[in-house]
Amino acid sequence: MRLRSLSVMLIISAAMIVCIILAHWRGARETELENQRYREDHSLFEDIVVGGRLMQETFLRRDEEGKWELYAAGDFSGRAYIYFTKFQTLKLTRLQEEDGNLSSGEGSTFTLHSGDIIPENCLEDGSVWHAEIPGRKGEIQEQADLTVYCAGQIPTLFINTQSGSLDALNSDQSVREQCSYLVCLPDGSRDCSGRCEIHGRGNSSWKEDKKQYSINLSSERSVLGMESSRKFALIANTSDSSFLRNKITFDLAALCRMPASPQSAFVNVYFNGQYHGLYLMAQRPNAKDGSVRIAKLEKKNRAAAGLSSDRQEAAADSRTVTVVDDQGLEIHASPQEKIPDNISGGYLLEMDARYEEEDYWFSTQRHHFVVKYPEAVPLKECQYIAGYLREAEAALYSEDGINADTGKSWDEYFDTDSWAAMYLMQDFMAQWDVESFSFFVYKDADDPLIYCGPVWDFDLSMGATGIGKLPNVMRQSAWLRDHREGWLTELEKFPVFSDTLQTFAEERFFPLLEEYLSEDSALSVQGMQDYMNTLGASVKMDAIRWGEEDQFARESSKLLSWLRDRADFWQGYRENPSGYCKVTLKYGFSDMDIYLPRGEVIGFVPTEEYGEHLYSSFRKKYGSVDGWRCEDGSLLTPETLIVRDQVMTPFSDSE
Hints:
Largest sheet: 8 strands, mixed
Radius of gyration: 31 Å
Number of helices: 15
Number of strands: 30
Oligomer: single chain
Shape: globular
Strand order of the largest sheet: 4-1-2-3-8-7-5-6
Strand content: 25-35%
């Protein structure tokens, strides 16, 4: 009986073992078939994920057939893990360059399983590895060369979109998507995280493959040491090979205590685990939890109108009304009638040549202002702020600086300090778009003064222009006086303003600039040369990611020299204008006036050979500039002595 029971138990056990084996075999077979189907449409390398202690996953990116790239987020050394599910092991063999060819090095071969810590030297920046994925029988299923890039000296921003893709965001700026975000410091530790909304931004920059984005955090946060804010921009710097023009401007504005100056930080950005490039994360010039801190008039408007839900606000925002006065000046606003009692502020306005693309704007005799805040500005408020700026403009352009109708002086409308600081910033940097685009002013509640700021969008400055790169020409220009007449230059006719400008330049701006440009800056923020020393690896990663040439070392060095030379010129010319000769360059599209030290050689020729590059569209329309002739017919050379004012004309080699 016992023997029979034992036999039955053995039979049952054997059957169970067979079932387990069959189930395991079937599972393995199904997994193998699944992996085979996966390999029909995918590379096995797509299955590889690299992650750190806090960092979200970082995927490899295919460069070309048989070649892959890994953009490592921050400093993963000693604590990066590798994960994969479609195969068992990954074999890495380091390749070394010999006589221009890559060959395997001795003692640098690793076999990794999913969940393993990646050996430290596997993540050395620029290292190249031959990667093999063995099959179950030892055959090689797939192989490729893997190049590793790592930039661990600046913070990292991870954003995961709800859809898991950027396709919708990159196709239409009006698309908004909910996301999660994580900001990590260079050492890999967490700075902050949470939820956010993201959408595309930019005008001409939107045509670039590397897009710019606006980020609205779910709540105000102090990001990377910045003052708590909710509204940020990811600035791509696609037109600035130095990556530094906007950062320099923001830093100097903050150091000079210019109103509402945006704080910013460089970040390596990853979307849905994929490396997306180097960006400047900056507080937006926004009065709703951005860099502009003024009275919350929009909140009061909603309360007065009884609006609470997003649907109600969206319906209200879609309605506009237009008013044109007998001088042809326009106002475009919301017809909302219920408004708070105090409508003296706050208002954030932008001088914008693309005003007709906006819903809410008004005109003065010389400018068009888009109302950025409050959004969907009610008609009565728009009439108030439009009338106030028209009054201010009338005082500004009157011969004695007094508005004949109100009896108020120009300095009862304009905050002298902020406008003087903005004059210097725009003129010194030779900002191409001054008083045309991204030029902001604001007025707060119960304050009669109009403030100028914040600074924004200085891609086209410091020798970069809307027609090309003209570093020598722009360095020697009296930019605002000769080429950008407007409110800023009109203010300069008043002695009080000129004195304020000179004092600001001598006592604050130029001492701070000198320290900011020095090798061992003692300022509370990083100086320019600090960025030159820390951004190189990130710029290289960005250039490889987007297929661009890495010009950072050369362009940042040239920009440093430009800023120092511009400071010498600006101060020298202001102190002794008679010591300079005015030279007018007769470009086909416009005259460009420059000022050169009297009795000295010019030192350059405004041509491609000396760094002056006109965009092809201008060369096609107006002709190439291959050289210049002086008034006496002689050829301009770097050794030409400048002893008097004169006009120079260009010529093309094809003539």
